[in-house]
Amino acid sequence: SLPKEWPELHSRVRKELNLNSNTTSLETGQTKNLPKLRKLPSNTEEMRQGTLLEHFNTTKITQTQQAHLDLLLFKFFICCAIPFAVLNNSFFWDLLTALAMNYVVPDRSAFFTRHIAQESAAFAAKLAAYLKEKNNLMLSLDGWSIRAKDEVLEQTPS
Fold first, then answer.
1. Residues pairing with 59 in the sheet
2. Per residue in 79-91, pLDDT tens?
3. For residue 40, what pLDDT is reported?
4. What pLDDT score does 4 carry?
């Protein structure tokens, strides 16, 4: 029975992931789907004293701002091929704190697991909508190798 129900189940899961992605939530303004604001773990506050400016800055970050920063952070890691372990580095935390003082750095494993699934579903939905409008699609492949005998393959949709 599962093989027969799989296409419908897969479609429902992709649709739900797409609706819960930060990209879709920010584009449509549906803030109810955004994740709750993160708080610093209790032991982190003791490890990090902060600065005098941080102590007096009372500006709180909103859910929408957190979702936007999360999305930018995710795109930074994915598009620049930055190792996910950097998210646990204290120097990286200091950089993020300097840029957005009240932004709480997410937990690496939960952050990437959730975002990879949701944002790939959002991208697949956008790609499907884009391709639905097109006729006579063609995909050309071109391959060659460089002097080090590394093979390079290029795909060009048109």
1. none
2. 888 998 998 888 9
3. 60
4. 78
What lies within 8 Å, CB to CB, of 17 at 6+ separation is 117, 118, 120, 121, 122
User: What are the tokens at 95?
Assistant: 């950089």
Give the predicted TM-score (pTM) of the model: 0.62
- Residues 112 and 119: their CA atoms lie apart, in Å, by 10
Query: Can you tell me the distance from the alpha carbon of 87 to that of 90, in angstroms, rounded to the nearest whole number?
Result: 8
Spell out the residues 6+ positions from residue 73 whose beta carbon is closer than 8 angstroms to its own: 96, 106
Whose structure tokens read 């697991």?
Answer: 113
9, 90, 97 from 87: Cα distances, Å: 33, 8, 12
- pLDDT tens, residue by residue, 42-58: 655 444 555 555 555 55
Is residue 26 exposed (0-12), middle (13-18) or buried (19+ Cβ within 10 Å)?
Answer: middle
